[in-house]
Automatic annotation (TrEMBL):
Its main location: membrane. SUPFAM superfamilies: HAD-like, Metal cation-transporting ATPase, ATP-binding domain N. The chain crosses the membrane at residues 297-315, 327-346. Keywords: Membrane, Translocase, Transmembrane, Transmembrane helix. One of its GO terms (molecular function) is copper ion binding. Gene3D superfamilies: Calcium-transporting ATPase, cytoplasmic domain N, HAD superfamily/HAD-like. This is HAD-like protein. InterPro entries: ATPase_P-typ_cyto_dom_N, ATPase_P-typ_P_site, HAD-like_sf, HAD_sf, P_typ_ATPase, P_typ_ATPase_HD_dom. The keyword Transmembrane applies. One of its GO terms (cellular component) is membrane. GO terms for biological process: copper ion homeostasis. It comes from Eremomyces bilateralis CBS 781.70.
Amino acid sequence: MIGIDAGWRNGVIISRGARTMAALAGITHVVLDKTGTLTTGEVRVSSVYFQPNRRWTNHQVYRMLAAAEAPHAQRHPIAKAVFQYSLLQLNMEERTFSGRAANGSVVSSGIQCRMEVDGEEVNVHVGSEAFLQEHGIAMDADIPSSERTTAVYFAINSEFGGFMALQDTVRDEALSVIAEMKNRGYHVLILTGDVDEEAQRVSKELDIPILGARSAPHQKEASVRDLQSKGHKVVMVGDGINDTLAQAAADAGVLLASSWASNAGAADAMIVSPDLNALPKLLSISKKVTAQAKFNVWYSMAYNVVALALASGLLHPFDIVITPSTAGTLMSFSSVSVLAMGSLLWKRLE
């Protein structure tokens, strides 16, 4: 109960009590998902490439992109990033932007729509590289390796116009949290479904190795089990349903804030706020509580063995007799001392 209370006071819900504490106390490897865990999950535009020798100005292209993404910006993070970046380049605010696309169609990989720009009707495609290729649009440029993250490509009147390279922002506290865990002797690793280049960018920024990239949920699970097969104790930390299998396979699973309803059942603990600082606190609490519990067990055993020996007359040859009232007092002291140590632990965990 002391550990559960300490976890709650530090922003963590521990769902399986002593079992979770014991599992976390023995952890050797901390495996972290990237998107939404090490990063904020808020996509931003990192760079823009415009196809040379096109007939449309940058200003006109940004108007087209803003109009195409405006209907979707409230419910899709990539659409929001493209829309807000386009407005920024246009020096406009969302409430003053009036451009809208008409006759549009939306699929999971992109948007196709028509709109009027400076009196001319244009057909705009915005989406993935595969989306443009499916519509017969030739790609005339490659993303440089330094920018190969998630990208949004666009075409105007079926002619390739360029792309926006996107990046997810690393959490402000991620570097200090990882440094703290490494200083405590934990092996910290990245396990992500994102592309290799994006995983390498975050790996370099945070100075931690990559366990796996482009990993589907079952591949994440396999990576965790591979670590366990080598004798390591693993905690899997993630925020999405694609981490569920890995969390269930790990010795302990920790869920970060955003999606309790989707995979709370696979998690042994849940960090209430999207703040990684709670993770090393959780590991520290688990170690202290488990160590105190083990000490209490051995202390109680040793105390009762000695008390039993005294009560059976061990000191009788020295004319020292344990009376029933003294024996009762000694028995009570055993319980009181354990409670006192628990209270001291509760204070130390504040």
